[in-house]
């Protein structure tokens, strides 16, 4: 180490300026070369290094600012989405409630309509039964009347002779004539 410091302090050991050559003493030349290179790098590279570091710092700060803006935008979108979700949930609950009440109303209306239809069918059935009963009763009456009429005609025909027959006809004509006079 003493040789290294001596080479800086004492210039007498250096060869004269008139000759140029290579110094093969590694211990003496490496620290000098390194100090010169480091001095030149520090002197000239300081500005470049500062510029690179400043550019990097600006890009990092810009990226941080952009990230913060994106974060704020994402938070705003998240809040809007949450608000919209709560609004949609409220609307869905209202639709569900309204849907259930509408379904209940439709169910009641359907039950009432079915009840009314059944009542109308029952009334129609009863009317049809009454009509059929009345028709059956009329048919029975008609047959009974026809049989009674045929029996009466048979009895009359067997009992009546032509003289009695003429007298009955004249009596009926007389009754009809009297009725005609009353109406005039």
From TrEMBL:
InterPro entries: ATP_synth_b/b'su_bac/chlpt (IPR002146). The chain crosses the membrane at residues 32-49. One of its GO terms (molecular function) is proton-transporting ATP synthase activity, rotational mechanism. Residues 64-98 form a coiled coil. Pfam families: ATP-synt_B. F(1)F(0) ATP synthase produces ATP from ADP in the presence of a proton or sodium gradient. F-type ATPases consist of two structural domains, F(1) containing the extramembraneous catalytic core and F(0) containing the membrane proton channel, linked together by a central stalk and a peripheral stalk. During catalysis, ATP synthesis in the catalytic domain of F(1) is coupled via a rotary mechanism of the central stalk subunits to proton translocation. Component of the F(0) channel, it forms part of the peripheral stalk, linking F(1) to F(0). This is ATP synthase subunit b, chloroplastic. It comes from Heteranthera callifolia. The lineage of its organism: Eukaryota, Viridiplantae, Streptophyta, Embryophyta, Tracheophyta.
């Amino acid at each position: 180490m003493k040789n290294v410091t001596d080479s800086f302090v004492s210039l007498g050991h250096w060869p004269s300026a008139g000759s140029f050559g290579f110094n093969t003493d590694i211990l003496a030349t490496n620290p000098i070369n390194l100090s010169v290179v480091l001095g030149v790098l520090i002197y000239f590279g300081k500005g470049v290094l500062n510029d690179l570091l400043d550019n990097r710092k600006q890009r990092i700060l810009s990226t941080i600012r952009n990230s913060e803006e994106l974060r704020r935008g994402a938070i705003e979108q998240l809040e809007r989405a949450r608000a919209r979700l709560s609004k949609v949930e409220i609307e869905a609950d209202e639709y569900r409630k309204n849907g259930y009440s509408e379904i209940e109303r439709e169910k009641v209306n359907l039950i009432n309509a079915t009840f009314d239809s059944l009542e109308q069918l029952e009334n129609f059935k009863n009317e049809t039964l009454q009509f059929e009963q009345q028709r059956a009763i009329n048919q029975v009456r008609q047959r009974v009347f026809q049989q009674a009429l045929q029996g009466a005609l048979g009895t009359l025909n067997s009992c009546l002779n032509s003289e009695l027959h003429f007298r009955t006809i004249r009596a009926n004509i007389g009754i009809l004539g009297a009725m005609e006079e009353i109406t005039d």
